[in-house]
């Protein structure tokens, strides 16, 4: 290799290394107050601590690999130990670079710090400030209306949900519209898609800039919008294949000729597990060559799913949703949710949860269909 070619290779390698070195989010923080010895800051991946640094003399610097469309979460040992109700918070950044986080009072938690240096992260913090203000106002209104009431009361919950519809949803929509060209706008839309009406979700998705529509959160919204259309009554279920606990593939089309109640659930869902004794009775009553229940878990942790299946001993077929069928074909926003499918594969109806009186719409329809 001659010197000219060698120099060219070295320049190319140097450029590659330089670019790779820049692909970091560098968080430089200042923290005021007595940490009481709890001086670590963590980067979380799910619930796992991926990395940590120590706060020394009120300062810390942590370097996080930048991954496109992924928001790393920060948490403080001080919060974990002394303020356990304070959750970790995401840094909604749209690229590598330096972010400054200034915490004026450690007693208020790491998430109270002011962010500088990345406009998307600043935008998201502004959204969170407004959302927290709304949450406090909504709680105050409901508590004043239901003095001595409990979140377990149906009236309390209905009032709370009404105010969410009246105030939080418009707030989300206005913010996304105003930040349609920012990753923060796409991130917020993706984060709150389960509570937004379908018409608002589609309108806001269409408002996003072309670049943000290609982001991962917006792609999740696009998949849900497809799922909403596919999940309408009368639509034929798009065939899918998922695996059993024994890793055997089963296609939905193999159930053709039967009425099928698809039960979407998860191992972490209390109401799902509470419904199983009743579902077993239902299965015993209607099981035949004309009716089947199909359980589809939305668990991301296969081990947790298998452990719960062993505990519950459910007698109907079970599949794990590893292909996001729950969203892109059924637009699931909560579990348990059930769909009743006709023998020719068309959606008859949807039911969220099972009524305490065991008189849900699907139960009524089964009585009508099978006369018992």
From TrEMBL:
Residues 1-20 form the signal peptide. The keyword Coiled coil does not apply. Pfam families: AhpC-TSA. Residues 231-371 form the Thioredoxin domain. Keywords: Cytochrome c-type biogenesis, Disulfide bond, Isomerase, Redox-active center, Signal. It is found in: Cell envelope. SUPFAM superfamilies: Thioredoxin-like. One of its GO terms (biological process) is cytochrome complex assembly. GO terms for cellular component: cell envelope. The keyword Metal-binding does not apply. Its main location: other. InterPro entries: AhpC/TSA, Thioredoxin-like_sf, Thioredoxin_CS, Thioredoxin_domain, Thioredoxin_ResA/DsbE_sf. PANTHER family: THIOL:DISULFIDE INTERCHANGE PROTEIN DSBE. This is Thiol-disulfide isomerase or thioredoxin.
């Amino acid at each position: 290799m001659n010197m000219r070619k060698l120099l060219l290779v070295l320049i190319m390698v140097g450029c590659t290394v330089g670019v790779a070195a820049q692909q970091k989010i560098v968080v430089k923080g200042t923290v005021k107050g007595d940490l009481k010895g709890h001086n670590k800051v963590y980067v979380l991946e799910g619930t796992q601590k991926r990395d940590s640094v120590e706060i020394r003399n009120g300062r810390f610097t942590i370097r996080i690999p930048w991954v496109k469309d992924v928001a790393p979460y920060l948490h403080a040992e001080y919060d974990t130990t002394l303020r356990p109700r304070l959750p970790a918070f995401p840094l909604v950044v749209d690229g590598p670079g330096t972010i400054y986080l200034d915490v004026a009072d450690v007693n208020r938690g790491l998430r109270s710090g002011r962010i500088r240096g990345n406009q998307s992260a600043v935008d998201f913090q502004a959204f969170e400030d407004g959302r927290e203000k709304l949450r406090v106002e909504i709680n105050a209104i409901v508590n004043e209306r239901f003095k001595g009431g409990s979140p377990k009361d149906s009236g309390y919950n209905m009032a709370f949900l009404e105010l969410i519809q009246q105030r939080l949803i418009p707030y989300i929509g206005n913010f996304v519209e105003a930040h349609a060209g920012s990753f923060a706008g796409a991130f917020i839309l993706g984060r709150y898609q389960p509570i937004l009406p379908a018409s608002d979700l589609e309108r806001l998705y269409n408002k996003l800039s072309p670049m943000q529509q290609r982001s991962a959160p917006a792609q999740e919204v696009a998949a849900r919008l497809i799922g909403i259309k596919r999940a309408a009554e009368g639509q034929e279920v798009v065939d899918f294949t998922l695996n059993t606990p024994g890793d055997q593939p089963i296609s939905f089309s193999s159930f053709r000729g039967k009425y099928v109640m698809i039960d979407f659930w998860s191992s972490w869902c209390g109401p799902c597990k509470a419904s199983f004794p009743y579902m077993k009775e239902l299965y015993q009553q209607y099981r035949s060559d004309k009716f089947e229940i199909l359980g589809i878990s939305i668990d991301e942790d296969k081990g947790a799913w298998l452990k719960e299946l062993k505990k519950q001993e459910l007698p109907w077929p079970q599949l794990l949703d590893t292909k996001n069928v729950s969203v892109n074909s059924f637009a699931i926003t909560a579990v348990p949710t059930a769909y009743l499918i006709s023998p020719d594969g068309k959606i008859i109806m949807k039911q969220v949860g099972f009524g305490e009186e065991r008189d849900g719409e699907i139960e009524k329809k089964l009585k009508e269909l099978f006369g018992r």
